[in-house]
Design a protein that fits this description.
Blueprint: H1 2-27, E1 36-43, E2 47-49, E3 52-54, E4 63-66, E5 69-71, E6 75-83, E7 89-91, E8 98-100, E9 106-109, E10 115-118, E11 123-128, E12 133-138, E13 143-144, E14 153-154, E15 156-157, E16 160-161, H2 165-171, E17 175-176, E18 184-185, E19 191-192, E20 201-202, E21 208-210, E22 212-214, H3 220-252
Antiparallel strand pairs: 1-6, 2-5, 3-4, 7-22, 8-21, 9-10, 9-13, 11-12, 12-14, 15-16, 17-20, 18-19
Helix pairs in contact: 1-3
Amino acid sequence: MNISFHTGKTAMIEQARAMSVYANNMANINTVGYQTIRPDFADCIYESYRRDFVDSDEDGEKDILEPDWQTGHGAYVQKTDLMFSQSHFYDTERNLDFAIGGEGFFAVQDRWGNVNYTRDGAFAMTQVGENGEWWLVSASGEYVLDNNKERIQIPFIEGEPNVDWSALKEKIGVFEFPNPYGLEALGTNRYVENGKSGAAVANPNAEKLQSVLIASNVDLATQMVKLIETQRAYQISSRVVTTSDELARIANNLR
């Protein structure tokens, strides 16, 4: 019974984690450049039981009473996978909005110097520094980088930005990875490279679209179906716990 309790409990915890992944995808359906995340389940450890032998016919030879068998302990969310796919573009009529026509990511640098990557090209301009320099930044204030991972400064005259939009478009860097599915997803529509993804490589020939943004690739219908399926699995797991508790109660009340 302890095994059934553990199996049901583990399944409930992991199904709840999966539900949070699907719910997060649905919540980001309107997030620019958001990429769907999929939970990937795996079996928990199996416990092996050895067969028992008994001399059932008193012939001096032991016969098999029970064969070997294995008992599983449920499943768990082994990892989450990024589901990169091209979604649709939409016009914004705003010169500071950019989208990548194919694969690739924009690079942004936070105030601590950390470089992250994103498909969100809704940029802005900000004035920072003693001399009133203007810089290209993300919507959350990170510096946008060029193909050399340098911050992009906006020319200015008498304290006001003087933008050559074609030149600005050319300056914006686009980076690709040997294995983009290995990127680590952060909680802000950002990704960071690691050993699985490989190092970022600049692609100066990448297609960049101006006054355009790329929509989230979340398929709402698919995510709703997955969420309902996971809720049903959670309910079944809770019944395993309830049934185990009832059987334990009956066993404890036996005289």
